[in-house]
Amino acid sequence: MNQLRKKAKHLTAVVVFALWLVTGCAHGKNSAVKGEPGLVSERVKVENTSGKEVKKDTSVTVPVVPVAPVVKAPKVRGAEGVVDTGGASKDLAALSRPAEGIVTEEDIPESPEDIIVGDDVDEFFDEGEVQKELPVTAVEALVPDPLIKFNRAMFEVNDRLYFWCLKPVAKGYKKVTPAFFRKGVMNFFYNLGTPVRLVGSILQGKYKGAGSELGRFVVNTTVGVGGVWDPADRFFGLKPSEEDFGQTLGAYNIDNGCYIVWPFLGPSTLRDTVGKAGDVFLNPLFYLTPNELAWGLSGLDVVNETSYRIGDYETIKSTYMDPYVMIRDLYITHRKKKIAE
Amino acid sequence: MKRIIFLLGVVICITFTAVPSFSDDGADVDSLIKTSMNDVLGIARKPSMANEDKRKELWKIVQKTFDFAKITEFTLGQFSYNSTSALGEYSDRRFTKAEQEEFREVFTRHLSNTYLDRMDFKNVDVIIDLKPAEILEAKKGIKRAQVKTMINKKTPIDYILLNEGKDWKIYDVKVEGRSLVSAFRTEYKAILLKNKPKVLTQMLKDKVKEHESAKKKS
Fold first, then answer.
1. In chain B, which residue's Cα lies nearest the Cα of A142?
2. pLDDT digit string (tens) for B140-180?
3. What residues contact residue A167 under an 8 Å CB cut-off, 6+ apart?
4. E strand or H helix at A136, and its extent?
5. pLDDT at A177 over 90
6. Distances from the Cα of A39 to the Cαs of A26, A243, B115, B148, in angstroms?
């Protein structure tokens, strides 16, 4: 096992070095991602509690509260098996089965296109004309789910794990740690994930993103004290390139395969499971010894991450009749969107 | 001739540079969203106000800003009382006017519980980048618009509005491109393909009851 690890270590070092050589040219001034183009063409300052007037054409933004709360889509993170519904929001697990005979495994969402609509595509208004002559169609699943019985069981397991173990621990952790500490921990582990994002970016031909990742890693590891701070974004405008091996496989037109819910890990698909296994070898924690230290750090990562997402899973669970189906769809649409980006 | 071409050019320039958000509609939509956000902020930040009172005040704003009748209609889709699409063998799944009204009341309460509970009154310092309103193509004679926002520089939330003649109201919210109404619509369609409207309304009532009793316990 140790030999295998050593070999993997050397191989990774060679690959990373080769990639560094290849992407060196993308590391220049012009390759840096500056700001978020197209994100904000015109910012509007929304008044604060003082009741001052709203001003247009200003680049200054002030803290405000959204009209609606943010609930993002799930993303798979660590072993928590919990739906990460975002900063608000976007991974996770489990649920209680719906009332028998009400919603079954066949009762699932339509095509993803029906959920992600374009800027000016409004399915609601088109109802009358479009569906006038059409029969009521059955609701189709976004992804094949032949393992649904196993998946629902694992969903239950992850639900219990979340409510009985992870949530209480994360709540306690949040109570005893200051916000800046948790932010630092999050940045540190995010920085450690650079190899995954870097290789994913390169394999997908996203050299600008790869250059940005490399630049971020150098700046954040040095100036940002081991990745605890993120000066690369703040001072150099270097944005992360959110890629992984599962997305890379998707970019090469490899289909999802079937949907799988793993205990501890949460929602996935056959393709993303293979991708996740590939990502493990690119995670520096995999090569850390002793194993207890690696497991401890991984646990800290999971608890810290969860401390930012307490309540998200609960919202999904209380909002939808069948959270298993909703989380499956959120997961699939989220991954599809990430691959398309 | 040159003068005519010049004048024509000026007219064309004025026409095409008249960005929609500078129109009355754009200004109205901008004003509605900004005012609502400011009102929400003002209430959420009142230190002396109890959270339950804040929720009540916020709900008043939400009721003024959102069109729950339209949200209900779009959520029910072809099963809605207002829809004319053929339901074939599922014709008994169409809501009657009274059933839809009852559903709207419960659904509105469900949305209220779900989303107001997500408000974190201890941490209201959220950064929102608000783009000017975009006027969309009118559908079936109903004016439409959208306002795009970016929360904390990373989460896009878009508000989609309509105006049936008087006021602009929000009828859908898209978080990272995902329509909330579409999500409910898909789930409820699956239920309505197997059950009559009354069952869906009862399920929703149970959900509301469950939520409210859990909240009392906590």
1. B186
2. 788 889 899 988 777 889 999 999 888 899 999 988 888 88
3. A306, A310
4. none
5. yes
6. 23, 20, 26, 10
Using alpha carbons, list the distances in angstroms from residue A28 to A19, A31, A260, A301, B56. Answer: 15, 5, 41, 32, 54
Q: From CA A197, how far away is CA A213, in angstroms rounded? A: 7
- Cβ atoms of residues B68 and B185 within 8 Å: no
Residue B119 has what pLDDT? Answer: 72
How far apart CA A186 and CA A169 sit, in angstroms, is 16
Nearest-CA residue of chain A relative to B201?
A321
A:B CB pairs within 8 Å? 231
Q: Is the dihedral of CA B50, B56, B59, B63 positive or negative?
A: negative
- Between residues B90 and A69, which one has the greater pLDDT? B90
Rounded-to-integer distance, Cα B72 and Cα B82, Å: 10
pLDDT at B99 over 90: yes
Q: Give A138-151 pLDDT, tens digit per residue.
A: 667 788 999 999 99
> Coil, strand or helix: which one is A306?
helix
Task: Provide, as residue numbers in chain A, all residues whose Cβ is less than 8 Å from the Cβ of B187.
Answer: 103, 109, 320-322, 325-326
Confidence of residue A156 (pLDDT cuts 50, 70, 90): very high
State CA B73 to chain mean position distance. 12
Q: B41, A47: Cβ pair inside 8 Å?
A: yes
**Four-residue CA torsion sign, B182, A267, A253, A211:** positive
ipTM exceeds 0.90? no
* First vs last C-alpha separation in chain A: 38
According to the CATH classification, is domain B20-217 in 3.10.450.710?
A: yes
Phi and psi at B74, nearest 5°, equal -70, -30
Distance CA A156, CA A302 (A): 19
Domain boundaries, chain B: 20-217
Of all helices (H) and strands (E), which one includes residue B162?
strand B155-163
HEC secondary structure over A23-91: HHHHHCHHHCCCCCCCCCCCCCECCCCCCCCCECCCCCCCEECCCCCCCCCCCCCCCCCCCCCECCECC
| Residue pLDDT, tens place only, B38-86 | 888 888 888 888 888 888 889 889 888 999 999 999 999 889 988 888 8
Residues of B in contact with A318 (CB under 8 A): 113-114, 117, 207, 210-211, 214
Residue A152 domain boundaries: 2-340
Q: Is pLDDT at A163 greater than 50 in this prediction? A: yes
Nearest to B131 by CA among A56, A163, A301, A17: A56
Indicate yes or no: pTM above 0.80. no
In chain A, how many domains are there?
Answer: 1
Amino acid at B8: L
pLDDT greater than 70 at residue A122: no
Report helix, strand or coil for B174.
strand
